[in-house]
Amino acid sequence: MIDAHPPATGTDAGTRHDDRATLTLRLVNIAAVVIPFVGLIAAIGLLWGVAFNWLYLALLLGMYLATAVGITVGYHRFFTHRSFKAPRAVGAVLAALGSMAVEGPVLQWVANHRRHHQHSDKEGDPHSPHAHGGGVIGTLRGLWHAHMGWFFSSHQFATSQDGYAHMPEKLKRYVADLEKDPLYRWMSGAFPLWVAVGLLAPAILGGLLTWSWTGVLLGFIWGGLVRVFLLHHVTWSINSVCHIWGTRPYRSHDESRNNAIFGVLALGEGWHNNHHAFPTSARHGLRWWQIDMSWMLIWAMSKVGLASDVRVPTAERMADKRAR
User: Fold this and answer.
1) Residue 27 CB: number of other CB atoms within 10 A?
2) Which of 45, 101, 116, 310 has the greatest number of beta carbons closer than 10 A?
């Protein structure tokens, strides 16, 4: 596997990106992130007792947590950064759950994320909010690109089902290690199957628990469609919000930042500066008060033999990379 995590070099590694994002970028970004959440909460309140109740809340949160773990623990920390080892059956389950998040086949997701780390906030980064022009138009272009616009860039994605066979060569090289494994190659190719399972499971549960077609429909809407929308919005906010808003306690070669709100909503992924400073660490919340539910799960897995060789930076290494 190529080195997708080049170290910061030179004495200005932690300061050369100190120029703050413009106020316009920050205001537009926070509006774009907050408004959909407010709309979702308002919809839940207005529909409570009519088309939403405790059952559908449980389906929404249950499916959100399961598929979010597939992204955070599976796609990100296990497949992309190899921050721990796990039995192949565990890897297969994580790949299936990550696919149910509808963020792309595992090989494709990993290729783009490894490329992001190699070129973070520079030319070649697939989803940086920076360097998209000045003024309001440039600000909006950068925000749209980082949050979801990059997703529609044809040169970023393969046209094949498994996200590999027709992947551009510049992306293929990032996943040569995973492509050699027939199980993970098959899991990636079965992406449409896992998407269908992720959408149908809450619909079936809703129908069985209410014994009605209305339950099927509402289970599909809340545990399927709304859950996908919520998880996408949170995941994409790591690309946009966490490169604009937050703190930078560690030296890194980019604009990655820690954001406590998304540290919680994204199950630990919001401690983004920590992650970019120590990309192979299975733990992103490096302080005791930095809630990292993905790390808690990995830690628990390690205690029952489902995870091994868990990688976490030493206290000395963290002290050495502290921003000065």
Assistant:
1) 11
2) 101
- Please calculate the CA angle 33-38-44 and round it to the nearest 5 degrees: 135
Q: Tell me phi and psi for residue 84, to 5 degrees.
A: -160, 165
Place of tokens 């296990």: 78
Classify residue 284: in a domain, yes or no: yes
**Mean pLDDT, to the nearest integer, of 99-121?**
92
The residue-averaged pLDDT of 43-54 equals 93
Both tokens of residue 220? 């599909």
pTM for this predicted structure: 0.86
Q: Please, what's the b/e burial string for 244-261 (b: 16 or more CB within 10 A of its CB; e: otherwise)?
A: bbbebbbbbbbbbbbbeb
Considering the domain boundaries, does residue 224 fall inside one?
yes
User: CA-to-CA distance for 54 and 31, rounded, in angstroms?
Assistant: 29
> In whole angstroms, what is the distance from residue 205 CA to residue 312 CA?
38
For residue 159, tell me if it sits in a domain.
Answer: yes
Cβ–Cβ < 8 Å for 236, 228: no
List the domain range (segments joined by +) for residue 274. Answer: 23-320
What is the C-alpha to C-alpha distance for residues 122 and 98, in angstroms, rounded to an integer?
A: 27
In this prediction, residue 54 carries a pLDDT of 96
- CA atoms 272, 273, 278, 279: torsion sign: positive
**Element housing 90 (H / E):** helix 88-100
In angstroms, rounded to a whole number, what is the distance separating the alpha carbons of residues 273 and 287?
13
What's the CA gap between 146 and 303, in Å, rounded?
37
Residue with structure tokens 């059956």?
89
How far apart CA 48 and CA 235 sit, in angstroms, is: 26
- Provide the sign of the torsion angle of the four alpha carbons 114, 2, 318, 303, taken in this order: positive
250 bridge partner residues: 322
Query: What is the per-residue pLDDT across 214-267, written as a single tens digit (0 to 9) for each?
Result: 999 999 999 999 999 999 999 988 988 888 889 999 999 888 999 999 999 999
pLDDT tens figures, 120-167: 888 877 878 777 666 667 667 777 777 776 766 644 444 444 555 556
14 CB-side CA count, 13 A: 16
Report yes or no on 36 lying in a domain: yes
Domain count of the chain?
1
